[in-house]
Sequence to fold (170 residues):
Amino acid sequence: MPLLSTLAGAAIGIVATLIADRNRWRHEDVKELLRLRLDIYTQYTTTVKVLGETLRALAEREHPSDDERALALRGAFRDSGIAIASERMWLIAPQPVVRASNSVFHCLRRICDGYVEGIAVSSPEDRAHWEARGKAAAKMRKLMREDLGVGPLTERHSLLLNDNNNPAAP
Fold:
């Protein structure tokens, strides 16, 4: 009987250890997935910000011809890394975040195409494009924060600039 009790105790101990290890591995997998999504979200939002600034700067710059302006703008869009960042989003992020990031991508595409077509920086049409991008980006960031389990933001990203990259009105 003591041998049977010892074996039962050992079996219970082994099973308890296996369950604890499994729970620990599952917890580590969840933490790693959150770290991966944080990395992807950071890469995407940074790429969006830098691409927007680059497009605006290129649109304000003098170019020898409309064709060279178009080439510079399209090249900047292509070389920004937004396509790669977008693909990472499509592979890892949950559906609402993917939809929101795709909306931001298309807003930036419209901004780029508008500048290629000759829309002037700070024109009403340009401001409308940037306003749409700002709203889409705010929604995307909100969904990303929810997915990462952090609370909502209570202040703007920048006190000096609004979401259109224009000086904020007093």
Notes: The longest helix spans residues 2-60. Residues 119 and 125 are 7 Å apart (CA to CA). The helical segments are 2-60, 66-79, 82-92, 95-116, 124-148. Residues 159-165 have pLDDT under 50 and may be disordered.
